[in-house]
Amino acid sequence: MSYRYLLLSMVAATTFLAGCSDSNGRNPESIRASVDFTAFVKQELANTSQRREAREVNELTFSFNDRSNEQAYDDLF
Description:
By secondary structure, the protein is α+β, with helices and mostly antiparallel strands. The chain has helices at 2-18, 37-46; strands at 33-36, 60-63. 35% of the residues lie in helices and 10% in strands.
């Protein structure tokens, strides 16, 4: 009975630990979200609520897809 319990515990622990990483061997916490900077700025400027909360940006990785688009922000002004 003791061997069976030990084997079952090891299988459960292995399954649990395998679910804690992605296919590249990284923890889910280490994966950063990539956000389009233009879309982010437009969304923030569109939010005119008096009760809006500050957005947490420390964990975001911005992608700058409109570097060569001189008209990216023309619709804001």
